Amino acid sequence: MMDLYFEPDKGTPFCIEVGYFDTMKEIKEKVTKYHGIPVHEQTLMFKGRILPDDLNIHNSNIFDSSHLKLMINSPTRSTTTTSPTTDPQQPPPHVTTTSTTITKVKIEETFSPSSCSSSQKIKLFLKTFGVAIEMDPNDSVLKLKEKINEMEGIPFSRMIVHANGNELHDHKTLHECQLVDGSEVEITLKPPTPTPMMTITTTTTTTTTTALCNLSMNLMGHNNYTKKLKINVMSKYGDKITLEVSPLSNVGELRKELQKVRSQGVGFRLPEEGYFFIYKQNVMEEDQSFRWHQVAQGDTIEIFNGCVTGGS
Q1: Which residues pair with 303 in a beta bridge?
Q2: Which of 106, 138, 284, 305 has the most crowded Cβ, counting Cβ within 10 A?
Q3: Region labeled Disordered — which residues (predicted)?
Q4: DSSP assignments along 251-278, one per residue
Q5: Backbone Cα Rg of the chain
């Protein structure tokens, strides 16, 4: 399950929990259930595009905590007033029909740094590392670098951040850099600065050694990527096992590791009719890496019976 935030063109914003494979029509029906807005009066928009009823969450770019525009198409209302009469000989009553047309005015929201609250988080996709990171629009670019430093161990003083074809400067906020939910960010590294030459003297020879900074073996920080993750895997039978995986490995590799464990007779039972993986109540995509799913040391991945199919 995941939370979506709705921003109606009139009324107060609200949040609804939806399923990973819900269609837009099913989401509209939930809006009707909880807020009384008829399905035929709803138009959902995301990043300036109207979302068709048959589109499902899984096949869209909508993530957990995304914000959707809700345009409410109010119908034309008519009222009929009949003048009372008690004499059957009187001519037919005078009927007055009043038609009230409600005109919808679209007001584009403009955010300023002071208007963004901490609850309005955005997810940025770090293209260089293949992971998403959650930030506040008021955070500075320097704050973004510090978070990447915590995740990857790369000194933020060496990072150069690019988005929308432009270099982002440390003192600017993400909002000022026009970064929104789902924006792509690229990180490049400045060349390391070599340390001064050192002279080491022994009783027999003099050896001159140049010490080079080895801050990273490649652009993405080799040392962090080669460090194994210890994860717990729990089956539907209650069996639990701890495995070591590479953060860069696709989740599909976990299926192979479990088959190896099973063939060794460890006693870890797997569903015969098929299964899929769940992490933090979300279905895991087996062609994506553990780092892409933000799996951390000691986390638990659950096995659910069945198979995953797209919604209609």
Answers
A1: 277
A2: 284
A3: 75-98
A4: THHHHHHHHHHHHTT------TT-EEEE
A5: 29
The residue assigned the tokens 């978070």 is 147
**Residue that has been written with the tokens 């494979």 in this structure:** 21
Tokens of 245: 């995986």
Confidence tier at 295 by pLDDT (50, 70, 90): very high
On whether the pTM is more than 0.85, the answer is: no
Handedness of CA 116, 153, 232, 226 (dihedral sign): positive
Phi, then psi, of 242 in degrees rounded to 5: -105, 130
- Residues 174 and 170: their CA atoms lie apart, in Å, by 10
Q: Decide which of 208 and 30 is more confident.
A: 30
Is the torsion defined by CA of 241, 242, 246, 251 positive or negative? positive
Summarised one tens digit per residue, pLDDT across range 119-128 is 478 989 888 8
Please choose, from the candidates 128, 109, 112, 123, the residue with its C-alpha nearest in 3D space to the C-alpha of residue 173: 112
Residue 287 CB contacts under 8 Å (≥ 6 apart), including other chains: 250, 251, 252
Say what the alpha-carbon torsion angle 247, 253, 258, 264 is, to the nearest 10 degrees. -100
Expressed in angstroms, the distance from the first to the final Cα of the chain is 18
DSSP category for residue 27: H
- Strand-pairing partners, residue 39, are none
CA 45 remoteness from chain centre = 17
Q: Burial letters for 237-264: b for 16+ Cβ neighbours within 10 Å, e otherwise?
A: eeeeeebebebbbbbeebeeebeebeee
Contact 109, 94 (CB under 8 A): no
Residue type, 140: S
Question: Which structure tokens are listed for 161?
Answer: 């951040």
Helices H, strands E: what count in the chain?
Answer: 4, 19
Backbone angles phi and psi of 158, in degrees to 5: -95, -10
Q: Cβ(217)–Cβ(223) under 8 Å? A: yes
φ, ψ at 31 (rounded to 5°): -60, -40
User: Token match 């929308």: residue?
Assistant: 164
Distance in angstroms (rounded) separating the CA atoms of residues 227 and 166: 33
